């Protein structure tokens, strides 16, 4: 994935944030120079995987399979001295799929904050445990009767071990995720050998650093 594509994805997400009057911490706009000026905070953020994250899942077609995220807060899985929760913002394009994956540790609520409808689909394939139902705003519905379509304000709880994918159905979607601690390095399990991160071609300078970017 080209850095210019990542810059454009972040700019589009920033535009959506402005549309919904949603502000981020000051370090959301930091480039390499700002991170180098506050190395202690920068290292703390990186350890918790907090900040921007843009991925094409290693497949080279961001518009079809990709996701832009911003992790606002997060703890460290398995650390009793850290917070037990995470909060992310997700920016999902029309027909832009986050492919089937599950988490063995994390339970998450996916919440549509604005924009179009979010389609969420589940599969039994390589899921762990018995998950015949999911809860949409507390209501139990069958998990495997086709995609669940969420309008603004609606949410679905996704239990650990359940393979799921999602995409924007009719317009770009502004999504929030509230969950237990998130670990994108170790707690994502994809169907079909999909990767989690993009291979980045540095065709331009980064507008902001991703949490996974080197700081030096």
What does this structure look like?
By secondary structure, this protein is α+β, with helices and mostly antiparallel strands. The protein contains three helices and 13 strands, in the order αααβββββββββββββ. The strands form two sheets. The chain has an eight-stranded antiparallel beta sheet, covered by helices on one side. A hairpin with a 2-residue loop joins strand 7 (133-136) and strand 8. The mean pLDDT is 97. One of its GO terms (molecular function) is isomerase activity. Keywords: Carbohydrate metabolism, Isomerase, Manganese, Metal-binding.
- Describe the oligomeric state of these chains in a short phrase: single chain
Beta-strand percent range: 25-35%
- Helical fraction equals 10-25%
Largest sheet, if any?
8 strands, antiparallel
Cofactor: Mn(2+)
Keywords: Carbohydrate metabolism, Isomerase, Manganese, Metal-binding
InterPro entries: D-lyxose_isomer (IPR010864), EcSI_cupin (IPR047581), RmlC-like_jellyroll (IPR014710), RmlC_Cupin_sf (IPR011051)
Protein name: D-lyxose ketol-isomerase
């Amino acid at each position: 994935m080209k850095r210019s594509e990542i810059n454009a994805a972040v700019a589009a997400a920033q535009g959506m944030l402005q549309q919904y009057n949603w502000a981020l911490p000051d370090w959301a706009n930091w480039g390499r120079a700002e991170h180098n000026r506050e190395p202690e905070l920068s290292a703390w953020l990186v350890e918790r995987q907090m900040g921007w994250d843009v991925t094409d899942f290693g497949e080279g077609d961001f518009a079809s399979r990709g996701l832009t995220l911003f992790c606002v807060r997060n703890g460290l899985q398995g650390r009793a001295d850290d917070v037990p929760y995470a909060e992310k913002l997700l920016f999902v394009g029309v027909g832009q799929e986050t492919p089937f994956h599950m988490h063995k540790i994390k339970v998450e609520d996916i919440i549509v904050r604005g924009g179009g409808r979010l389609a969420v689909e589940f599969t039994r394939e390589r899921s762990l445990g018995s998950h015949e139902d999911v809860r949409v705003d507390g209501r139990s519905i069958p998990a495997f009767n086709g995609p669940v379509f969420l309008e603004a304000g609606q949410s679905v709880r996704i239990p650990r071990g359940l393979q799921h994918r999602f995409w924007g159905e009719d317009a770009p979607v502004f999504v929030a995720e509230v969950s237990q601690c998130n670990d994108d390095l170790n707690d994502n399990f994809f169907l079909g050998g999909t990767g989690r991160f993009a291979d980045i071609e540095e065709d331009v300078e980064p507008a902001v650093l991703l949490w996974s970017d080197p700081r030096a």
